[in-house]
Automatic annotation (TrEMBL):
Residues 455-476 are annotated as: Disordered. PANTHER family: BETA-GLUCOSIDASE. Pfam families: Fn3-like, Glyco_hydro_3_C. Keywords: Glycosidase, Hydrolase. InterPro entries: Cellulose_deg_GH3 (IPR050288), Fn3-like (IPR026891), Glyco_hydro_3_C (IPR002772), Glyco_hydro_3_C_sf (IPR036881), Glyco_hydro_3_N_sf (IPR036962), Ig-like_fold (IPR013783). This is beta-glucosidase. Residues 459-473 have a biased composition (Low complexity). It comes from the Eukaryota. Gene3D superfamilies: 2.60.120.380, Glycoside hydrolase family 3 C-terminal domain, Glycoside hydrolase, family 3, N-terminal domain, Immunoglobulins. It catalyses: Hydrolysis of terminal, non-reducing beta-D-glucosyl residues with release of beta-D-glucose.
């Protein structure tokens, strides 16, 4: 790469930074957006959030919530707006529009909607009676990078007591655990306004604090610069007053334990910080209160979330599986709403009535979730990934493939080749919790009249072959012969079929078409790997109750080709290939063969 080319590329980036006043040492506040722009984009955001909702289970049509039914919102991400995964980039949205699902439901139904946090993310300030500083007295020892030191009975500084700016602070000492059990520690700090302040670390991403127990770092917090602001991203849920929450969940034996907490200053502003906890006794009381609330309503709705990446893999955040399990045991009509960015295991799945996967929706997520629960809109999303049945059954953790996990050499070998993601589960016939492309509706759909049609250049030939082989049944498969010329610029074939809404309400179906490898791949294309199955098309079909429509999904020539490394070109595959009209990667409604 030439120096002039590099300069030109960097120049484009710096020019934009300069245009928005981002090259100096002082940040600039953004101009207020016109209200019509805010509202127009809010409608788009709401539409995206609604269409992204995925209904995973709906026993006895528990959802949508029936008119007149009593409900309760249980779980921290139901009571508060959930901004998304920690330490990850995203569009931040308009803060004034970010409300929780509880707020949205109360706006729709009235203030009678009950609630319980279930798993508290903060707790209460740790009292001095349970802290011991380095001199053995109540409280913790504090040192800062300005050379100061102090003994603080508790760690709670805000407002006029906020700590001096432009300094980092460290607290050391011990904390007393009254009983054996899991403790939640919340090391929270206010995120100051960033407009018109000097940003000494501008353009970087650094930790804003750490929390350690017995010499082991159990939590780390993050700040994000270089995006037009600083956000509280250490946990998927900020504190109730929107402080950043560096949260730690640890098991402690009864007795004294070493504690250290470290925080850095931000944006030339005083530091507001506090140290809180949830003891095992308070944790049990919170869950019991949630159970009590659940027994008093028709439908408890438990909200659960997962920080990403989950350190233990595929798990909800600390304590939430227990919360769901105990609420479901108290009321089998329990609905679970999930906020997560990667698959999670669901040990309680058989015990709940419904599961609505909302992923991490945008600023309008509270409204979108509420309206899907109430039936003001219908779920139509489909899983973009496979939800495995267990951690050991995943592609990278399966013990049958140790080379895919970090080895003694520190390297991993991706031996699956093209068969990654949902293709791997199909290739190995591995059972899953929910397959790629899965999603239910508030209604039901029926598929009929499957048909394969060649491109325009072979329409006549296709019609002749269809007359000769008219939807032959063979072991439940529909067999077709379709010839497609690879020399034709329009060389594609299409799959068409009828979709009928057989239910009583409007709904959206997402039919999908998958294709398998050539049946003679081993002899016709030796040494070439073909995916066990590949999604080649899908459609979004909205239908009123009782309505039908014909769906046509076209398959492009590139999707029927592979890259030949010897000729350095794409090569069209000839021969017979299986094609599946499916509801998801595992549920084929019709299957057949096409001759290319």
């Amino acid at each position: 790469m030439s120096e002039s080319y590099l300069n030109r590329a960097v120049g484009h980036i710096l020019a934009k930074y300069d245009e928005f006043g981002l090259l100096g040492t002082t940040t600039q506040g953004s101009s207020p957006l016109p209200q019509d722009v805010v509202e127009d984009h809010a409608k788009i955001s709401y539409d995206i959030a609604v269409k992204s909702g995925i209904l995973l289970k709906n026993k006895n049509d528990t959802l949508p919530i029936k008119a007149g039914s009593s409900i309760a919102v249980i779980g921290p991400n139901g009571l508060q707006y959930t901004h998304g995964t920690n330490f990850a980039e995203r569009a931040y949205g308009i803060p004034e529009r970010q409300i929780s699902t509880l707020e949205a439901l109360r706006s729709r139904l009235g203030e009678d909607v009950a609630s319980a946090v279930g798993v508290d993310q903060e707790g209460t300030i740790i009292p001095s009676t349970h802290l011991r500083n380095l001199q053995g007295k109540p409280g913790l020892s504090r040192n800062d990078t300005l050379g100061g030191s102090s003994n603080d009975e508790i760690v709670y500084f805000t407002g006029t007591s906020a700590l001096a700016k432009n300094a980092s602070y460290t607290w050391q000492g011990q904390v007393y655990a009254e009983t054996d059990g899991y403790y939640t520690f919340s090391f929270a700090r206010a995120i100051p306004k960033w407009e018109n302040h000097t940003n000494p670390d501008y353009g970087a991403i650094f930790a804003i604090g750490t929390f350690s127990i017995n010499g082991t770092e159990t939590a780390e917090g993050y700040r994000l610069y270089g995006d037009g602001g600083v956000k509280p991203w250490s946990n998927s849920i900020a504190s109730r007053d929107n402080w950043d929450n560096i949260k730690s969940y640890v098991y402690l034996k009864e007795g004294w334990h070493d504690l250290e907490a470290y925080i850095v200053g931000l944006i030339d502003e005083p530091t507001s910080v506090r140290l809180s906890w949830v003891t095992p006794a308070q944790r049990a009381a919170n869950i019991q209160l949630a159970v009590d609330v659940a027994t008093e309503v028709d439908t408890p709705i438990v909200f659960a979330f997962a920080n990403s990446p989950a350190e233990t893999g595929l798990t909800l955040d600390d304590g939430l599986d227990e919360l769901v399990t105990k609420v479901a045991a108290a009321n089998p009509n329990t609905v679970v709403v999930l906020n997560n960015a990667e698959p999670v295991l669901m040990p309680w799945l058989d015990d709940v009535a419904a599961v609505l996967e909302m992923l991490y929706p945008n600023q309008e997520g509270g409204w979108a979730t509420a309206d899907l629960l109430l039936g003001n809109n219908v779920p139509q999303g489909r899983l973009p990934v496979t939800y495995p049945a267990s951690l050991d059954s995943t592609m990278t953790r399966n013990p049958d493939y140790p080379e895919r996990v970090a080895t003694e050499s520190g390297n991993a070998t991706f031996s699956e080749g093209l068969n990654n993601g949902y293709r791997w589960y199909a290739h190995t016939n591995t059972s899953v919790l929910f397959p790629f492309g899965y999603g239910l509706s508030y209604t039901s759909f029926e598929y009929s009249n499957p048909n394969f049609a060649a491109s325009s250049s072979t329409q006549q030939q296709q019609q002749q072959q269809q007359q000769q082989q008219q939807q032959q049944q063979s072991n439940g498969c529909l067999n077709y012969e379709v010839s497609v010329s690879p020399d034709d610029a329009d060389a594609v074939f299409s799959v068409s079929f009828t979709v009928t809404n057989t239910g009583s309400v409007k709904g959206v179906e997402v039919p999908q078409v998958y294709i398998g490898p050539p049946t003679d791949a081993a002899t016709a294309y030796p040494g070439v790997q073909f995916a066990a199955t590949a999604l080649v098309g899908f459609a979004n079909v909205e239908l009123e109750a009782g309505a039908s429509t014909t769906v046509t999904i076209g398959i492009r020539e590139k999707q029927l080709s592979f890259y030949n490394v010897n000729t350095t070109s794409w090569e069209f595959t000839k021969g017979s290939r299986p094609v599946y009209i499916s509801k998801n990667a595992e549920d084929a409604v019709f299957s057949g063969q096409v001759q290319l």
